[in-house]
């Protein structure tokens, strides 16, 4: 995360050893996360101030994850639920990338298309993805299609908007240069304009992936009988709080992994970028 | 002059063989800019086409009206719903219920997020301590907290306000942090050398650069809050627009479902527009994000 | 067909397959005007401009800043539409842009996501020049421009002068019939500038392309040109066209030596006076 980047190193304080800022930041992070975990552990396991129904101890949560990994919970093991979540999410965001990014590029590139699509798009994009859940269920039934559709609806707008922004911001002179060198409109778009628009488009894809993940969890909470969202809602009805927290941990970790993977990918794709 | 026969090894002549100039126009008509009038006309035409297609689909029963009611019926339902009760409230009542929760969670988010962000932006130490926790919790979507919130607070307003608060507090915090660090120390020094007093520095320099960021944070927070509230209402509510939508879907009242979706969208757009307007009013110098 | 330098002399080339009569100029700018509609209102950039360049001719344009030189070049390249008037190539309406009319832009316009080599090869790829030929021509340009070490660099990693050399190479590598250059040496250091000026003189003796060359340096304009066109202040029009004698003594020497030549100085002062009148009047 860029915002954590430290400022220019300060002079080392006279009392302490000369630690560089990065190290000090890391030490603070370890201390703060460590102490939160410690307090959590003390409050639950050691002193038993909170009963496990309200807040399970970290050990309970770890045990719950381990159990979920081998014993089926509401139909399948943790891996089964993860697999079905990832599948629905993957289908939805894949469709969103394949349709959304070219749509955004087209909107920026061809003014008549922009004029035709923008009013409808602006009207629809303010409907939150979760508001589509009931409609998706009505249309497609409570299953894979409905959930993937909700993921799509959540991931689509940022991908369109950022791809459009990226293409619109490309210096028109580059278009002229490409055409002067004999490139067709399609070639110019594919080989000159789009590469330049990629950072912005990728930023949109990144937002879309995380929106889609969030929307999927919402959709699984409301309908369906598989997936991580379903796990935590089922655990809530069973009163198994440690499973709720275990599910939340898995949701967070997976979301973070997707984001990291995309960051790595875009770093590779944007080598030319200053 | 001879005609060059190009062989596989032979050098292509320095001047390439003559090709008649392509008779393409300078700019293809697709790529030309449109006047404001043309944009408007095309927009209206495309919207009208969409509604017409929708009407035809349901009028010809190509799509069952159970799944997609004709546009006129949706409009009719909207009128009735304004005064008639559905699930214990009129449309106005459900809207008010939703807005109360959103306002509560959003304001609470600001109450916590603003000072927290300023603190994080101001002090390295606080940032080092708090930010990692923030980063740890951020990948968990706010609505994944709903089951836990229900366990802790029961099915009721507090649980929903809590979840909405979680979704709003992140942009509040991040933007107020950004607002603080956007104040360039060099700018302050520059203002000093120009003979500005402390109060005037705060007004001119700090507020000038920080306000647009803060307003943007408020806008994003409100958008998040609205989005999350709808999810929360699908799960744990007895009133509100999300609750209406889910019930309408389960009872196959697709007209009511579309009306509630429409209201949800319009209100979302309205919130965004209002805060954009506020941004323009309090910080007219800022570039629109 | 091949063009040997032997049958190329100054003036119109006879027997051109496109024109039939052989008296059409290579590039003709006929009554071109241009006005921009902006939010602030209409801007008249070009009043009626007329110019005709014979095959193989080198015409330089000088004029006060903002007088519409770049605008004229964009129109001549087919990249912008004239508000009225037309551009003719070999006597026929030129239409959209293409590699026969190659452009070096004032602001380089390098493709930021492509390496130096990819930038230079872009036009050849569009023209489907065979791969081995592409590689050969690329090498030639890299050597010529002293860019050999930077073939795999991205534009943002280059200095302004290096970027400009890439832009020039990208154009020259196509061996165009018409070269349109907008202050192509503007960002170069003095030595590279000298080098490339001489290189351009040499190249055109070999390839006899037709050049429309915009510059703000009067010396450069006189040194390179067969004719120098001076533009009026905005809205720009062609004020005067001055012939530079092709057989002048200083022709064979480099620009620094040439500048010491009285005949050259006289010409330079004549052009400069014309430009100055426009700058002062605006
Ligand atoms: N795209 C545009 N929109 C509006 N006005 C423009 C545009 N391009 C150029 N102009 C205007 O046209 C006039 C001529 O511009 P141009 O770039 O052709 O000048 P120039 O002679 O090349 O100047 P310089 O020597 O500084 O490069 C200027 O007044 C400029 O403001
Ligand atoms: Mg210019």
TrEMBL record, chain A:
InterPro entries: MetI-like, MetI-like_sf. The keyword Transmembrane helix applies. GO terms for biological process: cellular response to sulfur starvation; transmembrane transport. It is found in: Cell membrane. Keywords: Cell membrane, Membrane, Transmembrane, Transmembrane helix, Transport. It comes from the Bacteria. The chain crosses the membrane at residues 29-50, 62-82, 89-110, 130-156, 213-232, 244-262. GO terms for cellular component: plasma membrane. It is a multi-pass membrane protein. Residues 82-262 form the ABC transmembrane type-1 domain. SUPFAM superfamilies: MetI-like. Belongs to the binding-protein-dependent transport system permease family. This is NitT/TauT family transport system permease protein/taurine transport system permease protein. It comes from Haloactinopolyspora alba.
TrEMBL record, chain B:
One of its GO terms (cellular component) is plasma membrane. The chain crosses the membrane at residues 38-57, 96-122, 129-155, 161-180, 228-249, 256-275. It is found in: Cell membrane. Residues 1-10 have a biased composition (Polar residues). GO terms for biological process: transmembrane transport. It is a multi-pass membrane protein. Keywords: Cell membrane, Membrane, Transmembrane, Transmembrane helix, Transport. The keyword Metal-binding does not apply. Residues 1-26 are annotated as: Disordered. Residues 95-276 form the ABC transmembrane type-1 domain. The keyword Mitochondrion does not apply. Its main location: membrane. Belongs to the binding-protein-dependent transport system permease family. This is NitT/TauT family transport system permease protein/taurine transport system permease protein. It comes from Haloactinopolyspora alba. The lineage of its organism: Bacteria, Bacillati, Actinomycetota, Actinomycetes, Jiangellales.
From TrEMBL, chain C:
GO terms for molecular function: ATP binding; ATP hydrolysis activity. InterPro entries: AAA+_ATPase, ABC_transporter-like_ATP-bd, ABC_transporter-like_CS, ABC_transporter_ATP-bind, P-loop_NTPase. Keywords: ATP-binding, Nucleotide-binding, Transport. The keyword Iron-sulfur does not apply. Residues 27-258 form the ABC transporter domain. The keyword Transport applies. Residues 1-27 are annotated as: Disordered. Pfam families: ABC_tran (PF00005). This is NitT/TauT family transport system ATP-binding protein.
């Amino acid at each position: 995360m860029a915002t954590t980047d430290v400022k220019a190193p300060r002079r080392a304080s006279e009392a302490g050893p000369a630690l560089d800022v990065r190290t000090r930041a890391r030490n603070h992070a370890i201390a703060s996360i460590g102490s939160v975990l410690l307090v959590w552990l003390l409050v639950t396991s050691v002193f038993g101030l909170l009963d496990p129904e309200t807040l399970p101890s970290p050990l309970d949560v770890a045990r719950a994850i381990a159990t979920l990994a081998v014993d089926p919970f509401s139909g399948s093991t943790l891996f089964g639920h993860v697999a079905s979540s990832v599948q629905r999410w993957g289908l939805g965001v894949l469709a969103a990338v394949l349709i959304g990014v070219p749509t955004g590029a087209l909107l920026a590139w061809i003014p008549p298309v922009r004029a035709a699509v923008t009013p409808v798009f602006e009207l629809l994009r303010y409907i939150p993805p979760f508001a589509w859940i009931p409609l998706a269920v009505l249309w497609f039934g409570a299953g894979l299609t409905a959930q993937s559709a909700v993921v799509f609806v959540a991931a689509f707008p940022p991908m369109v908007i950022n791809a459009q922004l990226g293409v619109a911001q490309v210096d028109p002179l580059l278009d002229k240069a490409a055409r002067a060198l004999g490139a067709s409109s399609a070639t110019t778009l594919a080989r000159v304009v789009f590469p330049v628009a990629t950072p912005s488009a990728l930023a949109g894809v990144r937002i879309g992936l995380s929106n889609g993940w969030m929307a999927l969890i919402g959709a699984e909470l409301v309908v369906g009988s598989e997936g991580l969202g379903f796990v935590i809602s089922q655990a809530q009805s069973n009163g198994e709080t440690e499973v709720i927290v275990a599910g939340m941990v898995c949701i967070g970790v997976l979301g973070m992994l997707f984001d990291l993977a995309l960051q790595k990918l875009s770093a590779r794709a944007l080598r030319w970028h200053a | 002059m001879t005609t060059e026969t190009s062989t596989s090894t032979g050098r292509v002549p320095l001047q390439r063989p003559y090709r008649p100039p392509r008779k393409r126009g300078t700019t293809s008509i697709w790529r030309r800019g449109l006047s404001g009038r043309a944009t408007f006309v095309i927009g209206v035409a495309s919207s009208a086409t969409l509604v017409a297609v929708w009407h035809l689909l349901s009028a010809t029963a190509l799509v069952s009206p159970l799944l997609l009611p004709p546009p006129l019926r949706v409009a009719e339902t909207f009128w009735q719903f304004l005064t008639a009760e559905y699930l214990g409230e009129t449309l106005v009542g459900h809207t008010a219920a939703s807005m109360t929760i959103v306002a509560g969670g959003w304001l609470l988010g600001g109450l916590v997020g603003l000072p927290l962000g300023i603190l994080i932006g101001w002090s390295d130490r606080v940032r080092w301590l708090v930010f990692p926790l923030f980063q740890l919790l951020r990948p968990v979507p706010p609505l994944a907290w709903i089951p836990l919130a229900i366990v802790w607070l029961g099915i009721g307003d507090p649980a929903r306000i809590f979840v909405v608060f979680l979704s709003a507090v992140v942009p509040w915090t991040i933007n107020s942090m950004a607002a603080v660090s956007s104040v360039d120390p060099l700018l302050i020094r520059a203002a000093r050398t120009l003979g500005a007093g402390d109060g005037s520095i705060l007004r001119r320099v700090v507020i000038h650069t920080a306000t647009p960021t803060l307003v943007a944070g408020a806008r994003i927070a409100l958008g998040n809050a609205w989005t999350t509230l709808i999810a929360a209402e699908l799960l744990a509510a007895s009133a509100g627009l999300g609750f209406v939508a889910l019930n309408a879907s389960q009872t196959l009242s697709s007209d009511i479902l579309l009306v509630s979706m429409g209201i949800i969208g319009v209100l979302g757009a309205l919130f965004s527009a209002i805060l954009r307007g506020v941004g323009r009013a309090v910080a007219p110098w800022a570039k629109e994000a | 067909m091949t063009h040997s330098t032997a049958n190329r002399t100054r003036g119109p080339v006879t027997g051109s397959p496109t024109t039939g009569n052989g008296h059409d100029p290579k590039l003709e700018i006929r009554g071109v005007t241009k006005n921009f509609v902006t939010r602030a209102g209409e801007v008249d950039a070009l009043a009626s401009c007329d110019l005709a360049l014979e095959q193989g001719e080198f015409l330089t344009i000088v004029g006060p800043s903002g007088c519409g030189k770049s605008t004229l070049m964009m129109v001549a390249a087919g990249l912008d539409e004239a508000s009225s008037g037309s551009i003719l190539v070999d006597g026929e309406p030129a239409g959209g842009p293409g590699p026969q009319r190659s452009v070096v832009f004032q602001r380089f316009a390098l493709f930021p996501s492509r390496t130096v080599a990819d930038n230079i090869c872009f036009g050849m790829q569009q023209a489907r020049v065979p791969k081995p030929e592409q590689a050969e021509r690329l090498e030639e340009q890299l050597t010529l421009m002293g860019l050999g070490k930077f073939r795999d660099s991205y534009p943002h990693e280059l200095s302004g002068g290096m970027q400009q050399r890439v832009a020039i190479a990208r154009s020259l590598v196509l061996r165009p019939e018409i070269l349109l250059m907008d202050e192509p040496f503007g960002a170069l250091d003095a030595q590279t500038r000298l080098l490339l000026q001489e290189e351009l003189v040499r190249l055109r003796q070999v390839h006899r392309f037709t050049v429309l060359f915009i510059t703000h340096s009067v010396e450069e304009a006189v040194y390179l040109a067969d004719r120098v066109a001076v533009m009026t202040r905005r809205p720009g029009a062609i004020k005067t066209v001055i012939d530079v004698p092709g057989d002048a003594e200083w022709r064979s020497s480099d620009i620094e030596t040439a500048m010491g030549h009285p005949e050259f100085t006289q010409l330079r002062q004549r052009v400069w006076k014309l430009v100055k009148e426009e700058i002062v009047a605006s």
